[in-house]
Target: Branched-chain amino acid ABC transporter substrate-binding protein
Amino acid sequence: MKNRIGNGLTRRTVLGSGFGIAAGLVSWPVRAVGQVKVKIGAIMPSSGVLAFPGQACVRGIDLGAKFARQKYGDEIEVIHADTQSRPENGRIAAENLIRQGCTVLIGAWDSGATISALQACEAAKVPMVVHIASATQVTSQGFTQVFRYYPTSLMIIRQSLIDLKALLTTLNGPPASAVVLHLNNVMGQSSATSIAQAWKEVDLPIKLTEFIPYDEKAKDLSVEVAKAKATGADMLFPITRVNDAIMITRECVKQGWSPKMIYSANSNGVIDKAYYDALGKYADGAMASALYYNPKAPDAHKILEMFAADYPNEWLDANAACAFEAVQIVRDAVNRAGSSESGAIHGALKLTEMQPVLMSSGTIKFDSSGQNLNSAVALLQAQKGKPRVVSPRAIAEADLEYPVVPFSSR
Model:
């Protein structure tokens, strides 16, 4: 199956041959030849409403494979498949990749597409490393082929609210009430349920006023933002994809609503270049709690150099970074298995115990359901046109700015 990504070019990246690698960029010692050659299938929403993060993930996959080739001498072939932002296409993409000889898959960003793809993996007994997808169902439905690096929505949101509670004690005039504006798809509904549960568990001293859902295909969110504004809440807690995050902020500007805090968890927006390109000065101030790369990781500088060389007009964002890490998880398993066979890779993935190469988190290790046990989140804030890490302090790049500067004053 040929897959069209972004500008319409067919993406089939073969790294075993070494073509397209920039000479002199890095100087790692490369292992002797004779490494196992593996064919990896990567499933992403590279077109449609989720194209921005989907294409970022494609860049992360390709960079991760290139990194593995240069540093370890690994023989990796990557075949990309596009779900076109349709959840039902996850299974179709997975089946096609498996027919093409892919013995391990990575994907699929969207929870619905991930669950769909896992059905095909389960039937064919081909393991799948889930780089991003947070719905609880991904690892709660008894799939035996799933290995999810990304945390569940409850894990992300619980930790995010713990961090928020600690943050509130440092603020002068913290918010008193919050309104949740969320997608009504699988991810959004799972996140809303997780917020309601974790808010009580953490005992956050902020009153939750209302949950306001909206359709993921909505072209206008003026009514929903007006409802949120009418609650009188001084904190907005959005659960968004990047397109609707942009729409919500534009509506806040238009309607003259400037919450003291805009705090998001398990969402797109603040982490995405498209958010800043679209909003300019109105992007700054919003916060997001998310998995993020460690800018102080041992190989971070070289990885960022590689990315900049290949994609000078893009950012290595959280989407790309998670996809990059997924490739490292696969290559670690293949190396330990000494085989490209699905069964051998599956057995090695079950025994994974590795330190992240790029991401900021604990040791990567999967439980019996296939869930990574040691995920971690960082708190980012949009500052001067980019996301900046403000917590934890060990990897922080900037200090938190609070309250959000009113939109009318910018």
Q: What stands out?
A: The first helix runs from residue 51 to 72. The two ends are 49 Å apart (CA to CA). Confidence is low (pLDDT under 50) at residues 1-27, 30-34.
